[in-house]
Amino acid sequence: MAKGLQTRDRILDTAFRLAARDGLEGLSLAGLAGELGMSKSGLFAHFGSKEELQLEMLRTASDLFVAKVLAPSFRQPRGLPRVKALFENWRRWATDPGLPGGCIFVAAAAELDDRDRSPVRDYVVSQQQALLQAVARAARLAVEVGHFRRDLDAEQFAFEFLGIYLAFHQSHRLLRDPR
Amino acid sequence: MAKGLQTRDRILDTAFRLAARDGLEGLSLAGLAGELGMSKSGLFAHFGSKEELQLEMLRTASDLFVAKVLAPSFRQPRGLPRVKALFENWRRWATDPGLPGGCIFVAAAAELDDRDRSPVRDYVVSQQQALLQAVARAARLAVEVGHFRRDLDAEQFAFEFLGIYLAFHQSHRLLRDPR
DNA sequence: TGAAAAAACGACCGGTCGTGCTTTTTTTGT
DNA sequence: ACAAAAAAAGCACGACCGGTCGTTTTTTCA
Q: Rounded to an integer, what distance in angstroms lies between the CA atom of residue A165 and that of residue B42?
């Protein structure tokens, strides 16, 4: 009963990498199966539908994001060190050479932005909001500690934080500007 | 000899709107033909390939962007008024209710970011760079006129300008936050 | 070790994709 | 008005899509 879950993890891990480059729709069962060296039907049996595979894949991506970006940052002392760690870890996440295609959430957000509501879209939205909230929380703590101006708008700070990340992501991935 | 070009324009205009929502790959010939009330082959005869259609469509999008955002802004007096107009016109472009799906270039950029080079990708990159340059130029003029600090880094300003735009676009389209 | 259960497989389904080729309809210039 | 030219339609193709199903292989556990 363990072998199944093990392959399932392998599938999700590969799907995660593949989807970062080709998008959520661009990720095809045949292509994924080929990459894994297994049959399409054998792969598909692990999931009830492609949508469920996408959802599970995004969940593993979230877990990885928490493990690599959020958790280590929030282990830093509150205030400026934590905000700086957040920035630096997030930047690393977007440029990790092991993850071609950059941040899946950036790709997914652009892909789903004006689409109808769907479980996948709802999940991406909720994750994005949770992330903005986490950044805002770190900023508020930095105000309390005295590292930031007392009148700082934490939500606005999180918004601009995201903006810099998106612009950096685009410059790095699209324009291939290493700066 | 005029009817052909006229239909061609209609096709490109509709393709432009459709691609903003569904992306460059998501835009299908059958769907586009259906939207136009014409046959897939009749439509296809206007272009040698789908790639050429995508390119032509992006060119019309660029023309529209210049006409609606850049040209009117650069008619404003140099300095702060011009920069403000740039910001405001650009914001309007991203929220134009006539263009569901927001800015095609944002969608295309996310879709193509880590893909191999292609004529379409090259075009999007060149347009993005030209846009950043235009913003930087406006910023430099604002420095000359004395509206901005003398030591302003114009390229950095353009980068952050883009960041705010991207974050705004995402918040508006994905999170549906009207703020 | 052998039977039950889980996992992987291969063939196949209806449908859509982009793209040719041929024919019909519409527009154009005389 | 009529022939030449342009535009649109019709049809078919091979490839790929997500998904189903019955069979075979592998794993698990008694």
A: 44
